[in-house]
Amino acid sequence: MRGIIALAGIVFLVGCGHSTRPAIPAPRVGPGPALGPAPSAFPALVVPAARSAADAAAAYARNTSVVGSGMSGPNGLAIDAGGNLYESDYYRGTVTRVTPSGETSPYASGFSGPAGLAFMPDGSLLVACYESHQLARIQPGGGAHRPLAASGLQNPVWPAVDGRGRIFLADYNNNRIARVAEDGSLSTFASVPGVNAIAVDSQDALWVTTWSGEVVRLSPDGSRMNVASGIGSACGIAWSPSYLAVVTYGGENSRNGSLLLVDFSGRTYPVASPLDRASSVLFDREGNLYTANIGDTGLRKFALR
């Protein structure tokens, strides 16, 4: 991705709703040590692509690698300004930090079905907890966390924070996108059956995927535009000024998830398949893509060069 356009207020989100509940998570591991605050964790800046979605998809497909190891059900992803990745490990109930060199260390633990992640402007990290029906908030530096919203949710999968610091949450089994106030109170921003994931663009519009395979844009006033359809089990989504990246979960047993690019007219361009229950995707500031696939033990990286 070329051309330097800093997009203040972009957050790329992670996690996935499931048509059937995943297996019961393994026993939790103990709390990890505080690692110091994530450097300038909000937002993750992106250099937009200077090539077509078709050309970019071909480049990503040629340059793949694995980042980190030892994970058990990687589900959600976030990134800080230092290029560190944060992964929610669904079965262990933990959040792990992965450095650009691939070194992993515990960041926080004690969650029940952690799915999507999103940084707040102060460097705290939001965690959508699918099984405990909560939105948790990890303090800057990791370790300590508390529920932010603990009632009224049904299997939340994906938080998002816009450029003004407003929190949105994909409330999967309530079929809505909720607004979350600082005191944890909830209101419905939009009704979206089967909502799976949210990404925020530079205009504070929300880009949404649904389990039935839709990609939808919701403007800040809530008006809706359907961008694409027929992308079955569409899960994680990430926005760039040139195209969207979307992963599909596939099936619990078929392990036929995929990564594709979607242009703003709704055309799709395959990058990688099969992926083992792909749930999350994000861009880093260089335009590289990362996916979290629940069946893997590491994260996948797709580079433009």
- Write down the overall geometry: globular
What is the terminal separation in angstroms? Answer: 9 Å
**What's the β-strand tally?**
24
In round numbers, the mean pLDDT is 86
Strand content: 35-45%
Question: Radius of gyration, Cα only, in angstroms?
Answer: 17 Å
Walk across the major sheet and give the strand order: 1-24-23-22
Pairing-aware structural class of the strands and helices? mainly beta
How can the largest sheet be summarized? 4 strands, antiparallel
Low-confidence stretches: 1-15, 19-43
**SSE topology string:** HEEEEEEEEEEEEEEEEEEEEEEEE
Indicate the percent of residues in helices. under 10%
Question: How many distinct helices?
Answer: 1
Overview of this protein structure:
The protein is mainly beta. It has one helix at residues 53-62, and strands at residues 64-67, 74-79, 85-89, 94-98, 104-109, 114-119, 125-129, 134-138, 145-149, 156-161, 167-171, 176-180, 186-191, 195-200, 206-210, 215-218, 224-228, 234-239, 244-248, 257-262, 268-275, 278-283, 289-293, 299-302. Residues 1-15 and 19-43 have low confidence and may be disordered.
